[in-house]
Each structure stands twice: as structure tokens, then as C-alpha cells.
Predict the 3D structure of the following.
Amino acid sequence: MGVDDASHKIIADLLEQRTGQQLTENRRWRVSTALAGLFRELGLDNVDQLACMLERPGEHHLATKVVEALLNNETYFFRDHVYFAMLANQVLGDLASRRAGSKRLRIWSAGCSTGQEPLSLAMLFCEQPGRWRDWDIEILGSDISGKAIASAKTGCYTQFEIQRGISVAQMLNFFTETPRGWQANDKISSMVRFQQHSILDHPPHPGQFDLVLCRNVLLYFDTDIRRTVFDRLASATASDGLLMLGAGESVVGQTERFEPSQWGSSLYRPTSVHARATRTFQHRASA
């Protein structure tokens, strides 16, 4: 293996150890591009120099910077509009019927990056005030990237970010222009909380979500890691809850914990075996 290959392996191994994500050959081109800013900051010319620095003892802070730079934080408001339309027009109404007794809804946006997805969900609820009046709705946005979550917690977006995916009416209704950028207002930010979390870890509180969105995250895992992730997602999903994946993702042939739902593409429900196990666990916990 040449020096260049060895350097790329050091970077790829670091990413996999920290996040479970694989830097496969077809993504190898991203390394130099993603790390260009770090090269400038450190005065480096190439990946080989960076790899040598990473091999030195005590470079934990540098390793974190490298991983943060390699993570794909691409997102925008209402990404894949057709899925949000399905949620607004069909899925959330069904959940409202099934949770009418408690008037409580818990949603987890896993891999939320800088927060546009959970805030998009909050906008859906705000645009249907009659249906959701007096409901207790909590949306959790999580991501392994501390930098992305820190940005999400500010709720502030640049002109470029705010124009991606939302209408002018939504922009003016749910955001306020400030010298720092477009700030999410309390109508939507009060519904959302953010935390740094690895999807490979045990699910975050409260652990049983009515709807889980994990879109365009599984693409970067190998088969074994993906199976582990599905196990984590299954334990986080209510027995009659739903999981939404990205357009290029599926549970078919990947896990026995989920099966296609009545809503069709990209929406899945826990399998009956998992649902029975979850109900048994909940019953024992409450006894």
C-alpha cells in the first residue's frame, strides 16, 4: 500500500471508529474536498501531512475536527416535499386519531444535522392549529456532530439556508430577520429540542417515539452496523409507531424488526413480533 493509500486508510479508520460510517472507495473523493478548510487552518498541503499529525499521541482534538469535517451535514427545509406532504395529509392525522386519548406526541429526527428537518415538522403542526390545539408535542432532533447540533440550537439560518425548501410566507411567518440571520420564532422552536447523540447508542429519552425519522443516514453504514442501527431504532419506536427512511433506503433484506406500512414507500412499522415484545415490556414496566 502506498503512502497515499495508507493516509486515506488512517482517515477512513478514524471516521469508522468514531461514527460507524464507512468511507468507501466511491466516497474517497470527498476526503480532500471536505478537509480543505482544515488544511488551510493548519497550513497543510495534503492528506499525507494530516495523517502524520493524527498518528502523533495526544491529537484527540484534531481527530474530532477531522471527523466533523468528514460528516455529511447536507440538509434543507422540507427535504423531499412529497414525504412531508404525506406526513401532513395522512400520517399525522392517523397518529392524531390513535393518540386522541393522551393528546401527546413524541417524534425523533435522528441525524438531523443543523436542524431544518425537526423545524420543518414543527411548521407542519403550526399550519394545522385546529387539529393540534391543546396537544403536548415534542420533537427531538439529534446528530452525532457536535458542531451541527450547536448550530441547530441557535435556530438561526443564513439567507441561503432559509431559502432552501420553504416559501416566502413560511419564512415570514416562522422566522424573524436579524443581523445574525433568520431566527426561528417561538412558535416552532418551543416544540423542538436538540442533543448530540450517536445512533449507535441506546435511544435518547423518552425512548418510545410515535414517529422516528432517520433519513439518508443508513447509506453510510455497512450491513452489520445497519442491522445494529435498525435494532436501536426498533427499541425507540412505539409498538404502533412509524419509521421514515430516506428515498434510497429500505428495511427489506436489512432487518426483521420493521416491515412496510400501509403508507407505502419509505414508511415502516415495527413487525408484529417486535410490537408484542414492546407491549409486554411496557406492561411489566407499569406493573
